[in-house]
Design goal:
Elements: H1 4-19, H2 25-32, H3 38-60, H4 80-96, H5 103-108, H6 114-131
InterPro entries: Sulf_transp_TsuA/YedE
Keywords: Membrane, Transmembrane, Transmembrane helix
Length: about 140
């Protein structure tokens, strides 16, 4: 029961993304062909909200749901790892037609072919866990 609020928040978030057509393969196709601002507007809004939210957390020392302080760990600056990682992420997104976030939403809407993507994402995460210590970070 303690996790019910997170479950309900996830359901609400899934409904919002579905209604906003953020999980639509067609909208993603339009984005990668620079034919529509729709997805760029959604991503930009999420980025803006995240930046403002993070700054508020830091400034007012907001605590998590258990009352513990939220520690934002500073990452070392890098260029190539973000270029390479972002390119791999974008290529996968373009090939599949879905970002990893909406996989479960698409399963919930009855798009069962996305299960192949879910299996691939889980397999990729598992393989990364095996080789992460050998990769340059």
């Amino acid at each position: 029961m303690k996790l019910a609020r997170f479950f309900l928040t996830g359901i609400f978030f899934g409904i919002v993304l579905t209604k906003a057509e953020a999980v639509s393969w067609y909208r993603i196709y339009e984005m990668f062909h620079f034919q529509s601002f729709h997805m760029y507007g959604i991503i930009g809004t999420a980025l803006f909200t995240g930046v403002i939210g993070l700054q508020l957390i830091k400034k007012y020392k907001i605590k998590d749901y258990k009352g513990l302080p939220i520690n934002v760990i500073e990452k070392e600056r890098g260029f190539w790892r973000y270029i390479i990682g972002g390119s791999m992420f974008g290529l996968g997104w373009a090939l599949v037609g879905s970002c990893p976030g909406p996989i479960f939403i698409l399963l919930g809407t009855g798009t069962y072919a996305i299960a192949v993507v879910l299996i691939g994402a889980l397999l990729g995460t598992y393989i990364y866990g095996l080789v992460k210590d050998k990769l340059p970070h």
